[in-house]
Amino acid sequence: MSSRTVIRGGLVITASDEIHADVLIEDGRIAALAASGTPAAGAFTAGRSESGAPAAEEWGRVIDATGKYVIPGGVDAHTHMELPFGGTFASDTFETGTRAAAWGGTTTIVDFAVQSVGHTLREGLDAWHAKAEGNCAIDYGFHMIVSDVHQETLKEMDKLVEEGVTSFKQFMAYPGVFYSDDGQILRAMQRSAENGGLIMMHAENGIAIDVLVEQALARGETDPRYHGEVRKALLEAEATHRAIRLAQVAGAPLYVVHVSATEAVAELARARDEGLNVFGETCPQYLFLSTDNLAEPDFEGAKYVCSTPLRPREHQAALWKGLRTNDLQVVSTDHCPFCFTGQKELGRGDFSKIPNGLPGVENRMDLLHQAVVDGHISRRRWIEIACAAPARMFGLYPKKGTLAPGADADVVIYDPHAEQVLSAETHHMNVDYSAYEGRRVTGRVETVLSRGELVIDRREYTGRAGHGVYTPRSTCQYLA
Fold first, then answer.
1. Phi then psi for 251, rounded to 5 degrees?
2. Residue 139 bridge partners (DSSP)
3. Whole-angstrom Cα distance, residue 298 to residue 250?
4. In this structure, what DSSP letter does residue 224 have?
5. Angstrom distance (rounded) from CA 133 to CA 126
6. pTM to 2 decimals?
7. If you count DSSP H runs as helices and E runs as strands, how many of each does the chain have, helices first?
8. Phi, psi angle pair for 232, to nearest 5°
């Protein structure tokens, strides 16, 4: 039996257009759009009685979006649900984390399966499938963290690309955990140049950082603020430059994750000016928070420990400029929450033992809308960096990331005038603090559909674990 929904009277915003239009959804997909008030739009509700009630039970629903935005569901291409790190685990499960994402207007996440040293890619991917399957409220895919590069790993990369796991993350940071040396990075990049995969890089010089950590602790500098001081912007820039040149040698595309520093943005801009297939992502924490947060007294700064670290506020201008000039293409969250009590506290007396990560999957769309209100970006650029660009970057477009006939009906009705105060008391992430506690923002998600099914209905959760399905991906759609 066919199911039908009409969203009527809203301002439809995609990365390329803004139009007052009605949206027809049939069987979980966008069937058509038509300018509001036209005969074509009127035809969407043909067959309903004059009172507006369905002429038959199975007809479907009409959602009134008058005065609201109708936007694609957000695509968060960088999350870490249930990630083991620093002797503990990220506090959001796939169930709690995807529910929180839906509350925040995100309808697709791409999480990271982890290859542990001594194990195969397949073992890591299977483990993450087991964590996610049947538990997600929204659709999901996987990147693959590659921690142990050898000949069998390289062969496995080919198989994973064929299966729709088309991106591989490597780390220049975290020696002894995820770290890859330049030779391992080059080999993986060479393989991705052949199989169409995209290498994602955590670009920080981890070897040098470990020296600075050791020296800081020896001086008695143990507070959270020193986490930011030892992970220097120049070491992010150096690693970014090195990753770009290794990718150039390999003839491979490169995507640099969680860019935080002016100097790193400059490296990306230079590479793009040279015509290289180099891309960059930043995160809300680097756009809205700073080292002032890391320096909060009484160990409160531990809440803001993540890597790359928060930077002094003056770096934010370069990030906003990079987003406007397209030297940065994507805003993801790097959502990796650890509770302050019992988890972040593991690093009392030694900042290097504070689990690295911030909660944010629920806040991204709202914070970026605030950036529209504040004049940093346009409405269409908001949708570009939060929905369309991540979908294109990771082979999900046009199934995800836009509102067009044939696309999945992942749709958000967004109230641009509602005001809210971000707080741990009201958020839905499974973590005991908000990185944005007390921040007042304009704009709020009202209703969310995932493949045509209501997940949030006028600020009530109506979703369910298991609705979200694994989504294989094609290769990056931006390659020159």
1. 70, 35
2. 108
3. 47
4. T
5. 10
6. 0.97
7. 15, 18
8. -70, 145
Angle, vertex CA 145, rays to CA 427 and CA 190, nearest 5? 140
**Per-residue model confidence as pLDDT tens digits over 205-263:** 999 999 999 999 999 999 999 999 999 999 999 999 999 999 999 999 999 999 999 99
Q: What are phi and psi of 186, to 5 degrees?
A: -60, -45
CA atoms of 224 and 291, how far apart (whole Å): 10
Q: Which residue has the tokens 């406007």?
A: 324
DSSP string covering 32-52? EEEETTSHHHHHTTTT--TTS
pLDDT digits (tens, 9 = 90+) for 280-306: 999 999 999 999 999 999 999 999 999
Pair of tokens at residue 385: 């960096």
pLDDT bracket for residue 347 (50, 70, 90) = very high
Query: Can you read off the two tokens belonging to residue 158?
Result: 């080919």
Helix, strand or coil for residue 78? strand
Q: If you count them, how many residues does the chain have?
A: 480
Q: What are the DSSP calls for 108-134, one per residue?
A: EEEEEEEPPTTS-HHHHHHHHHHHHTT
Contact yes or no for 379/452 (Cβ under 8 A): no
Residues forming a β-bridge with 408: 29
DSSP string, 259-313: ---HHHHHHHHHHHHTT--EEEEE-HHHHH--HHHHT-TTTGGGGG--SSPP--G
Residue of 35, 29, 27, 31 lying closest to 60 (CA atoms): 27
